[in-house]
Amino acid sequence: MNRIAGVQGVVEKIKRRLPKSKFARNVVVLAGGTALTQGLLLLASPILSRLYTPESFGVLAVFTAMLSILVVISSLRYELAILLPEEEETAANVFALSVLVVFGMTLLIGTAVFLFGDTLLLSLKAEKMLPYLFLLPVSFLGLGLYQSLNYWAIRYKRFASISRTKFSQSFGMVCTQILAGLFIKGPAGLLYGDVVGRVSGSGTLALLSWRYDRHILRKISLSGVGKAACRYYRFPLFSSWSGLLNSSGLQLPALILASFYGPQVLGWFALGQRVIGVPMTMIGQSVAQVYTGESSRLARQNPEQLLRLFYQTAKKLFFIGLLPSLLLGIAGPQLFALVFGGIWYEAGRYIQILSFMYLIQFVVFPLSQTLDIIECQHVHLIWQIGRIVLIIAALVSAAWWKAPPALAIGLYGGVMAVGYVILFFLSAMSIRKLCGTDKTAKDVA
């Protein structure tokens, strides 16, 4: 009895320490699951860095960069609209629309890969990826479906299920990469493991959705899908281009580095992204998923509360990310050489250069969907165009003047940081404008 009472006491203490608000609790669930996932990846990285060369990581980086750029338009951003309708039937039709678009885009991407893939890889100095090019449309389909299913799960606040799915994806990826690395030379193990990790979550979320939501999904109709496509036309018209430009801004540096500096430099950059950039981005995505669900409701009902949520989320993210960024800025190269082996010292140097940019990205990235939620997609698109032009100009200029890779990466980090600061203020100004419009409408009524 005393033991049971003791366990109950511990449980009660944990409950008291958990955040009280639903929003904060949901963030803890998703961010906690993501932290476990990234912990697994971090634990595996010292093993992988000794099984695979920087060149192999460079080939993987080319693959993931191409996939990340393309998958943003897998459903032409209709997946973002799944959260918006108040009627369940309308939301189900938007979900069906996004899934149908994913299949159509997969056929298009597969055709493009068949016709032009070889030429593209040769230009990127990634010839070692040629035998595995067929994996690109496979990953595109799996990840595209996962995105739509993920937003459907967010609509019903199934954050624990999303967290479990993320962990199982990472576990499958890491196990495949380690086992393959023991028996297969070259980048094959990294590529196959990445594909397994990216596509494995779709089936789990699909079964979960059918189990709980089949009564809603059975209301899907062809006419309903057509109406949804017309109602939310702004997403393919503006958000898809904005998302494509955003992912290009994030991923083009890898492709440019591969083209001008070769796979070894890209491999160093890629390990840094894997160990630092990806975990910070994924934790940010977990916050973003909860923020998106909450902010879409507040945008309709209480824009002033949305502005408060925007600032509070940014403030908390800043203090969470500050200490890790300072640590990397001070001792990044030494930490990387110690943990991953001496050959990876240069990767730590790149992370040291980018530490401030990572902090700004960690704060602003989860809030980046704000302009889409309040239907200011045109503002987001203009920002994306400006940023990507500056990123390309910075990296190409560095390569043109034969600057060392570290300088090119520093220019990239500076442009990224400034771009995110501008996006933060554009989002805040747009919410303030929405607050003023909402007040005017109420006064007229």
Strand content: under 5%
Distance between the termini: 63 Å
- Low-confidence sequence ranges: 1-15, 440-445
Task: Please write the string of helix (H) and strand (E) elements.
Answer: HHHHHHHHHHHHHHH
Structural class: mainly alpha
Report the strand count.
0
Helicity level: over 70%
* Mean pLDDT over all positions: 85
As for the number of domains, it is 1
Biggest sheet statistics = none
Note the overall shape.
globular
Helix run count: 15
Spatial extent as radius of gyration: 22 Å
Please characterize this protein's 3D structure.
The protein is mainly α and 445 residues long. It has one domain. 85% of the residues lie in helices and 0% in strands. It is built from 15 helices and no strands. It has helices at residues 2-17, 22-51, 54-71, 88-123, 135-155, 159-183, 188-217, 222-231, 234-261, 263-301, 303-340, 345-364, 370-373, 377-400, 405-444. α3 (54-71) packs antiparallel against α9 (234-261). Its main location: membrane. This is Membrane protein involved in the export of O-antigen and teichoic acid. It is a multi-pass membrane protein. Keywords: Cell membrane, Membrane, Transmembrane, Transmembrane helix. The chain crosses the membrane at residues 23-44, 56-73, 94-117, 129-146, 317-344, 350-368, 380-401, 407-426.
